[in-house]
Design goal:
Number of strands: 4
Order of helices and strands: HHEHHEHEHE
Radius of gyration: 18 Å
Strand order of the largest sheet: 1-2-4-3
Low-confidence stretches: none
CATH superfamily: NADH Oxidase
Mean pLDDT: 94
Structural class: alpha+beta
Number of domains: 1
Helix content: 25-40%
Distance between the termini: 43 Å
Length: about 190
């Protein structure tokens, strides 16, 4: 078993995967790990949709790309010009051709959903790294509006997608980028 500091070093953003499926049993184990993540008031609002079908992953990528480009053209959002060029490329898959996408979703009514989902995503990423797998949170893949695709994912209208996480066997694990020391604004201790 990996020690925690080693696990933190092994958890990197992976965007290049081997052409190898991740067994459903391992995905279920990783999701079981995610249920251990803290949530506000122990509400546990996160739900998961798992997609291991490459045809469906491509359809989800195409849907998200189209919605992002439409929103950008209508000035609802502003995209970096580099992203616009990527999203216009019909061969670009926002999920980097990963063999699996896990959508973390939850009720729109939960005020803490973004934080709760981010914690669940962290547990998924660490659980995957502990098993020699790679992940990346791909925000570009969250823009799924087509009712048919949402129904196929099992996402009701009362829920929203927070975090699409790609999962697979990494071709390589990049070295950690340099990190700066913690920027501690102040430390307040008891006066002596």
């Amino acid at each position: 078993m990996m020690i925690f500091s080693e696990l933190l070093q092994k958890r990197r953003a992976i965007r290049d995967f081997e052409n190898k499926e991740v067994p459903l049993a391992i995905i279920q184990d990783i999701l079981q790990d995610a249920t251990l993540a803290p949530s506000a008031s122990n509400n546990q609002p996160c739900r998961f949709a798992v997609v291991s079908c490459r045809k469906t992953i491509k359809a989800l990528s195409d849907e998200s790309k189209a919605n992002l480009l439409r929103d950008h053209a209508e000035k609802k959002i502003h995209l970096n010009p580099g992203y616009v060029n990527l999203l216009q490329d019909e061969n670009f898959n926002v999920f980097y051709n990963a063999p699996c996408v896990i959508y973390i979703v939850g009720p729109k009514s939960v005020g803490s959903l973004d934080v709760d989902a981010a914690l669940a995503a962290s547990y998924i990423m660490l659980g995957a790294a502990a098993r020699g797998l790679g992940t990346c949170w791909v925000a570009l893949g969250a823009n799924i509006r087509d009712p048919r695709l949402r129904a196929e994912l099992g996402i009701p209208d009362t829920c929203r997608i927070v975090a699409p996480i790609i999962l697979g066997h990494p071709k390589a694990i990049p070295a950690a980028s340099e990190r700066h020391a913690p920027d501690i604004l102040r430390v307040i201790t008891e006066a002596r």
